[in-house]
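[#protein-structures] MJ: dropping Chromo domain-containing protein here for a structure pass
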Amino acid sequence: MQKRRAQGLCFNCDEKFAPGHRCTKSQLLILDGGCDQDIDEDDTEAEISLNALTGWSSTGTMRVEIQFNSCQLIVLIDSGSTHNFINEKIAGLLKLPARPTTPFNVKVADGSPLRCTGKFKDIAFSLQGIPFTATFFSLPIMGLDVVLGVQWLQQLGTVACNWKNLTMDFTWAGQPRHLQGICSQPIEPLSLKSISKELRHNSTAFAICLENSTATLPEHLHPNMLHLLTQFSDVYQKPRIGAVLSQQDRPIAFMSRALGPSKQAWSTYAKEMLAILQAIRTWRPYILGRKFFIQTDQRSLKYLVEQRVVTPEQQNWVSKLLGYDYEILYKPGKENRVADALSRVSGIPSLNSLFLPHSSLWDRIKATLTTDPYMLRIGQLASDRPGQPYIWKNGLIFFKNRVVIPPQNPPMIPRYELGSSPVNEVDQVLATRDEILKELKLHLSRSVEYMKQVTDKKRRDVEFYPGDFVYLKLQPYRQQSVYRRAFQKLASRFYGPFMVEEKIGSLAYRLQLPSESKVHPVFHVSLLKKHVGDTVPVSSEIPPLTDDGYFVLEPAEILDTRWVRLGNRFTEESLVRWKQLPPEDATWEVSSDLSARFPNLNLEDKVPLQGGGGGGGY
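AK: finished. structure tokens for Chromo domain-containing protein:
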């Protein structure tokens, strides 16, 4: 499939694939729907709650006495379990008739599966004298004998449950029925000797369920339990992840993050991987471009790169680690004390003494102040003009409260060697990444070269020397608010000639401008044109400019007036000679606009145009 994709072929025929492609040859596709002969009438995925698996009582559960023939047991009615389950040892003692079935997994609420190999169909039992029949599956249940789940509750129809009073009311066989639950036994202190004895005789596993509902511990707790809660209080804190960045076995940075409600249910494997990804994301500037080692107390993570990546989570993790040169090492938990402490408690005072701020980075930067040309130039600017914008602080140069460092080359992305990873998927992804980067660099270099060639076609090498006369090209005169010139190309484009005083750099020159000029005397070479011969100067006076580069023009006098037809009405126009511009640059402007723009302009002494010459006046 990958070979056909690389060649651009259709998956169904040997023709090239393109948008809108249709196979020319007809194909007959047959969908064969198989049928499993051992399918029950209820094919819902079996699931059992933690309460039913461990025997704990909680909201939505109720304990009732159940009777199989002459044997009386305890059943847990659990609305969180999908099917009915029975302890596999109890099923053996009762000698229930087992039906051959294919072994399948039962999903536990925490995500771990349990293997079910036994099925008991249409087993008769009674609850407080009410007869029932149901199908049971055998599971290693602890602390309980039987579990009745949703599969049995669906047979009852409408059920009124009072979980507080442990009662159930329903209609069965046309008669109203009532079930009264029994209270669970309270938890009592048990010595270690008693627990060991029970484990030897009955092979029973015990679990202690602790719930911290108040900020302070209640006083009625057993002294031994109170001592445990006080001594190991960090165990009951909210789950966290932690990591430490070390160099030469010395810690230099710490990281600790709290886990949200959704991530608290993750497995230990996933939490450990989350801690690694978070640490790499936090310390990326320090480890990118160099090899580093990841030490974890999760042994299975050591084989992350070597094993086959099958789950979406593993594929996501591996993709985020691409581009890093790393190696995962196993370190037992008793030796990885710093990271373990960070994952338990944040802000513990004993961690403050682990880190002493010491770094040779500042010494290396100070050493470049006397050797690096860039740092020497910046240091001279900081000494000559402090705070504009560089300043000296504690032997370092600062720019806007940031330390100035010498220029450095960006880190290189390590090239992947084909076959380095035993995982085929990872090997192909990394090889494809290098091919894409190589092709991208090739296209970028071609684009840069092409743009340079196109730009150089419109450029020429021009050089002037002190004493040469050149023409200066300024922005053409445009009146934006009064009247736009009809023939803009007739306006003056060059001024001068002016003498070149000095060459500034390789592309700028200083010109000798008139003393009354307010224009900066340094210009780019593209604005200059060499003066040849004894040509009469075009214009030696440079008009004043605004901050935006436009000329500041003021009317000197009104040379003439005329009336012109604009649309359906006649408008008066005035011939204006502008200050600091030659007479040939005089323009016709609307008189009303001139009065609005220049209130102090006297238009009363204008001379009317006689005979309609030049503009068709009346």
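MJ: nice. The mean pLDDT is 75.
AK: one more thing. Residues 469-530 form one domain.
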